[in-house]
Amino acid sequence: DISGGTFQNCKNITKIVIPSSIRRIESETFKGCESLEGITFPADVVSLEGYAFKGCSSLKTVAFEGNKFSVIGENCFEDCAAPTKGSARWAKAITKRKEVLFFILCS
How far apart are CA 77 and CA 89, in angstroms? Predict the structure, then answer.
């Protein structure tokens, strides 16, 4: 797990590749990382908790290597940038599993 708030407001992070050992990203872990442009989630991530990426206003690319999500918390991607081509595909698939805050990513 990556503990809640661990990287909150780290303004210089531009890209994240989550290690394969991580299963859960807790609340507000990357909240306010305004320079974050891309994230890659390994196949075994199952939980993104509320507000984990809120306010990542430069976030455009999100890649999932798997589809095991059981929890996507409230407002996880609130106030994030619109995705680039390809990102909307996974967002729509996940939205079918749980109605959440992917309205930005699917627009």
Answer: 16
Q: Which DSSP string do the residues of 57-85 spell out, in sequence order?
A: TT--EEEES-----EE-TTTTTTPPPP-T
Question: pLDDT tens digit string along 53-88?
Answer: 999 999 887 777 776 777 778 888 888 876 554 454
**Which tokens in the block code for residue 62?**
């999100």
Task: For residues 31 and 54, give the distance between their C-alpha atoms in angstroms, rounded to a whole number.
Answer: 5
pTM of the full structure: 0.76
Report which secondary-structure segment, H or E, holds 88. helix 87-97
Residue 29's Cβ-side half-sphere holds a number of Cα atoms within 13 Å equal to 19
Residue 107 reports pLDDT greater than 60: no
